[in-house]
Amino acid sequence: MTTTRRLCLQPLRHACAVAAACALGTPALAQQSPYYLGAVQGVASDSNVYRAATGSDIKSDVISSTGLRAGVDQPFGRQRWALGAEANVNRYSSQKVLNNNDYQLTSRLEWATLARLSGVLSGGVKQSLYRLDTTGNRQFTQRNMLRSSNLGLQAQLGTVTDLSFDAGASMSRDSYSSVLFAANNLSQQSVNAGLRLRPGSGLMVRVGLRHGTGHYASNTDRLQRDDVDLATAVELSGASTVNARLSRTLQRHDAPLQPDSRSWTGALGWNWRPLGKLAFDLNLSRDGSVGAVNFDNQIFNLASSDTRTQTRLALRADWDLAAAWKIGSEMTLLRRDINTQLLLNNVAQGAQDQNDRTVALNFGVRYLPTRNVELGCNVGREDRSTDAATVNAVTYAYAVTTASCTAQIYLR
C-alpha cells in the first residue's frame, strides 16, 4: 500500500475543480468518453513502518499521499487498447527518510484478426517503496525503491474453435535503488506454447510447455526453469467457475555447486457469485520466485528474491451493500520456503533453508456518491511467524496494523 501527503497544490486543485465540474454538470458527456483524469488524496497510519522484528525498536507513523491518475480505454475495430498512468507523492510525518515518489504506467492491447488469430500485448514500468527485509534478521531503516519493467505477449490461433494453439513470450527487469540490495537485481525471460481443447460447453483443458531463465546480479549463475503444464477451467454453473493448473517443474543452474530441483507447482481458483451483489474468490497457489507468470498476459509475478517456493491461500468476499456502498474483505495465508543459495555464488558460502508463515487480514468500505467520486477506508493486519533461530536467521517474525482513508475524484 502506497501512502502520501502533498504535492503541486495548484495543479491538483485545478484538476479537482475541473473533475468536480464535470462530475456535477456533464454526466451524459462523461459516460461517452474513453478517457479519464483524476486526483487522489489519502492518509494512513502504519504501526511498524520498517517491518521491524517483534520485540525490537518498532516505529509507527502517519503517512499522507497525493496523486494523479490518467488513462484511456478505447476499442477500435476488433482491437481494444487500455493505458493507465498514476503518480503519488508520499510523505511520512516522522520517518522522513522514507519520503518517496512512486509511479506506475501500464498498457494493454487486446487484438484480433479475421484469421481467428488473437492475443494480448502487455507492458509496464513502475517504481515503489520496497518494504520487505531480505537481509536476514537485521532491520533495514533506509529508503529502498524497487523499479520494475515488463513486457509480455500471448497469442492464440483458433479462438472460437474446439481446438486452438497459443504461444507467448515475456521479459522483466527488477532493480533496487539501495546499493545494499544490488545483489537482488533480477532479470527474467520466458517462452511458452500450448494446445487448448474445449470438449464441451463450460469446459477448457490446456496442455503446454514453458521455458524460463533468471539471472541475479549477485553472481554469474543463470537459473533455467522448465514446466509441463496441465490446466483446466470448468464452469460449474452460471454462478460458479473453477480454474486449476498443475505443473511439473524442473530448475537447473549453470553453476556446478547449485543443486537442481524437481517439484510440483500449480494453482487452484474458485469464483462463486451466489447473488448478484455478493461474490467470493478462493485462490490456492504454490510456485517459486523465479519463472512464475500470469497466464493471461505472461507478465512475471515478483516474489522475494530469496524465496525458493511459496504456498498462498487467499479468500476474498465482495458485497454491493447498496447502490453507492461496497464492502470488501480478504484473508491471506502465506508460507515461504526460503533458501539463500540464489543470492550466493555457490552453496559453500553458507546457504540456509528456513521458512516463515504470514497471516494477513484486510477489510475495506467504499462509497461512490457519483460516477466520478469515490471515498474509501481500509484496515489491515499482518502477522509473520517463524521457527528460525535468532542467530544466522534469514527471516524473522513481525506484526503490523494499517489503516487508511482516500478520496478520489475523476473527470471521465
Could you walk me through the main structural features you see in this protein, from its secondary elements to its overall organization?
The chain is mainly β. It has helices at 9-25, 27-32; strands at 35-46, 61-76, 79-92, 100-112, 117-129, 145-157, 163-176, 186-200, 203-216, 222-237, 240-253, 261-275, 278-288, 307-319, 325-339, 353-370, 373-386, 398-411. It has an 18-stranded antiparallel barrel. The two termini are 25 Å apart.
Task: Tag the structure with descriptive keywords.
mainly beta; 412 residues; 18-stranded antiparallel beta barrel; disordered N terminus
Give the termini distance in whole angstroms. Answer: 25 Å
Low-confidence stretches: 1-30, 297-305, 345-349
Helix content: under 10%
CA radius of gyration: 23 Å
How do the SSEs run, as a string of H and E? HHEEEEEEEEEEEEEEEEEE
Largest beta-sheet details = 18 strands, antiparallel, barrel
Mean pLDDT: 83
Helix/strand/pairing category: mainly beta
The tally of strands reads: 18
Strand content: over 45%
- 3D shape: globular
Discrete helix count: 2
